[in-house]
Write a structure and sequence with these properties.
By secondary structure, this protein is an alpha/beta fold. The protein has one domain. It is 34% helix and 14% strand. It has a 4-stranded parallel beta sheet with strand order 1-2-3-4, with helices on one face. α1 packs parallel to α2.
Length: 101
């Protein structure tokens, strides 16, 4: 069961447009240090539509590295791809946010 406040994270980018994975983990640790119970990665505030599969996996890994409960946004333009992405979530993800395609 999830309890407490789970903070939706932004996805920071470098000046060249790449995901700043170190900044993702730093931000995640900061909100946890401020009292958050868990994290929400790849929600609408996380720029998920702008990320490829490898980048999404990196964001999830950075959040999981904190050891806190992580909720992951899973979306797609069709039911099959959304279901596949949901099945492919790594071990350790506490829950998923799944909008209807």
């Amino acid at each position: 069961m999830l309890r407490g406040i789970h903070v939706p994270l932004i996805t920071p980018f470098t000046e060249t447009g790449e995901v700043a994975f170190d900044a993702v983990e730093k931000l995640a640790r900061h909100v946890l240090d401020q009292g958050a119970a868990g994290l929400v990665a790849l929600g609408t505030t996380g720029e998920v539509a702008a990320l490829d599969e490898e980048e999404r996996a990196g964001v999830i890994a950075a959040c999981l590295a904190t050891g806190a409960p992580v909720i992951v946004g899973v979306s797609g333009n069709d039911t099959r791809s959304t279901a596949r992405a949901l099945r492919e979530l790594p071990a350790g993800v506490a829950a998923a946010l799944v909008p209807v395609p």
